[in-house]
């Protein structure tokens, strides 16, 4: 496990206001590790799918406020009433290869799907019985074909798993009222905790061994009956099952808010999990921002508040420039298809990534944060992502210590750009017109790892 825990201390790369200020980078990048594929990937697909796709945000004719996968809590639905969605869940249009193809075409390298959300319903064929095979007319496994399609197409298959469970008998609503339940957070029934931990372990063994999940992305860890010691024990047990498994910090307790980083009181896991936010500065530990395209994780028919493709592409760049991964969510419909608005946006991201992907994959956080955009770098190249095209055709960056080999636009690679190298600053001459309104990438090919020349 990584030793660094304090988010306050982790914010080392706070240079996004001061052009040219050199920063210290830690050893994160040096060690070859099971995190390598994950660090290189930079872009993944989150999928929230379950029984909540059936009501899709509406209960008994009424719109229910909030994220759709929380409808059981938001509308205070009893266990037996919620179970009635199962006979209506029949995703006949589900096509695992098509889902994976859409993710892959968008430039995503991994998929994290809800194997079980807070509602307790499993999308895989478990030994336990509240699942897609045993409880729905569909009657077939969803995660096995998805895992296999991922393997066929070279996408890494990963799973989300909620510790809190609104369906398991071990847990009661916090108001103790099974007829008008307040499910969040659950209370543990006296003496039932070990029964529930065994139940989780059955699922987790299935996911790791039979479904070959590569990441376990825990959530719902905040009820008071789940402790850091429980998280540590589960983490150790999982790593024994598969020493290459990656597990997020939410396997442990003590997360204070949505910023998703661990402190000295919480479990660090293998990566931090900011939710619906991007850290203001670079962070020197492994982290991944998970975000929605509209306002809901699960499909919500009434939510048409979609972010633009421009926002989504710039979020990906922003996150990469700060050393993190972007886990971008899809909420499939109950019939097994992705909402058209999501597919459209992923298409635009794929178009951008096909031209500019090398400025995202395998990159490390920036050396500086300019006003005109963002910066990423890797061995042999510094990438300037220009959001705001300079009207004077000049882009200023702090001087690099490296020898330059070539400067070009990823969107027009045959043309070499001129640079005027001053002691403190370099000025790159760019074409008059914007190449890409969303983000034009200039590649400065250099010898070695880009570093700033000493200016202080
Ligand atoms: O699965 C999606 C959501 O359903 C779930 N996480 C994403 C990935 C989620 N989103 N919002 N919430 C859960 C709300 C939880 C909020 C809180 Fe808390 C739980 C507030 C208080 C307890 C977070 C955890 C902030 C403090 C502890």
From TrEMBL:
Pfam families: Alpha_L_fucos. Keywords: Glycosidase, Hydrolase, Signal. GO terms for cellular component: lysosome. One of its GO terms (biological process) is glycoside catabolic process. Residues 34-358 form the Glycoside hydrolase family 29 N-terminal domain. The record marks 290 as: May be important for catalysis. One of its GO terms (molecular function) is alpha-L-fucosidase activity. Gene3D superfamilies: Glycosidases (3.20.20.80), Golgi alpha-mannosidase II (2.60.40.1180). Its EC number is 3.2.1.51. Alpha-L-fucosidase is responsible for hydrolyzing the alpha-1,6-linked fucose joined to the reducing-end N-acetylglucosamine of the carbohydrate moieties of glycoproteins. Belongs to the glycosyl hydrolase 29 family. This is alpha-L-fucosidase. It comes from Novipirellula herctigrandis.
